Amino acid sequence: MQVKSKLALLGGPKSVQSDPGNIFNWPIVTPEHEEAVLEVLRRGGMSGTDVTRQFEKEYAAWVGTTYALGANTGTESLRAAMFGCGVGVGDEIISPSVTYWASCLPAFSLGATVVFADIDPNTLNIDPNDIEHRITERTKAIVPVHYCGYPADMDPIMEIAARHDLKVIEDVSHAHGGLYKGRMLGSIGDVAAMSLMSGKSFATGEAGILTTNNREIYDRALAFGHYDLYTAENLETEYLKPWAGLPLGGYKFRVNQLSSAMGRVTLKYYDGYIAEIQQAMNYFWDLLDGVPGLRAHRPAKDSGSTMGGWYAARGLYRPEELGGLSISRFAQAVSAEGARCGPGTNKPLHLHPLFHEADVYGHGKPTVIANADRDLRQPAGSLPVSEDIGSHTYSIPWFKKFQPHVIEEYANAYRKSAENYEELLEDDPGRTDDIGTWRFFSPA
Length: 444
Ligand SMILES: *Cc1c(COP(=O)(O)O)cnc(C)c1O
Known about the structure:
The chain is of the alpha/beta class and 444 residues long. It is built from 11 helices and 12 strands. The strands form 3 sheets. A 7-stranded mixed sheet has the order 1-9-8-5-4-2-3, with helices on both faces. A 3-stranded antiparallel sheet has the order 10-11-12, with no helix packed on it. It has a two-stranded antiparallel ribbon with strand order 6-7.
């Protein structure tokens, strides 16, 4: 029997008493990482491409694709992937609304626009059943995001894309090393793009990378923002050869090789890093199994799918099991226990004014419809699951080390807050709509 102990928020003792030590430290930087970075720094190799080209080869081999191409940020890898897929003026891409903006916003700079699909409330990923009716003659690509580490349901998405001759661009920024039914994320779509910035589970400093088996997509991505590598010899796609030497997009995506050096060493040990993260995060959720109001956000154990690095990990919230307790009040109680917990997740992009009003490029009308054949803007109420998800999600700690006694204290903070929910109802300010962020997650 659980003995009720007084909530820290109401003057009781905190659940988290231990010093967390290095359990949250990120990224992992060893003397081997330092040596590799210093080697590039000392020889003045920061703006070269030799280390990056080597890193790309190794990264492609790890993901299991023929090609990989680095970029200075994940955002630019996504822009390059979109151009690689032929997204251009007047085209549409279909993206989830609940994601970081870089999953879709680069479309604007290509003269294209974004149609948002709703998400599934349990996976938090694009809902495969909400895609097909949004496809028009102008749709070029679907962008599933493996959101907060959870693999998007790729089989039906690939089927829909094949039926309509669309490209699929995986955004793997939250899920490096995760598996979908046994297959590496980043190897399933026509192309994948991902961030490698310091906060992500594959952390190099500041960089991005795309992976593909498609030579034309690779060549187009390279031609778009890599003038130094854009040579006739580096390309197999004939129609791109006449313009070699200048980047087609007017972009410069070259990676700072300090990040590539960091990436090469990280890649050597990454499977080990995430194996320990998996063990720690799964232990946390196993401890909370059966607690009312709380559900794990992770694929079933026998599904062959895994969470990879658990970036920005969330929990699912069922307020109806807790007398309607608001997520904000719950998160406040957990935080008071010493386990910082934030309500919500990314705010739905379709409600941001940039997707309604802003005329970014001087078209004389909002950019979102500047080259569109109809008013495709999506008002409040149009994507109900996305608009409601903030009140059904919360952040959980991101453990990098398997230290059971520390993890148990954090799990207790969540359990205690849920099991004593009645004490929280009295001062619950209730539900607000201003939950989540359009910017970034602060690390736990
Ligand atoms: C971080 C992130 C990006 C962009 O990556 P940067 O390296 O920060 O430019 C793209 N998509 C998602 C889902 C992200 O979380």
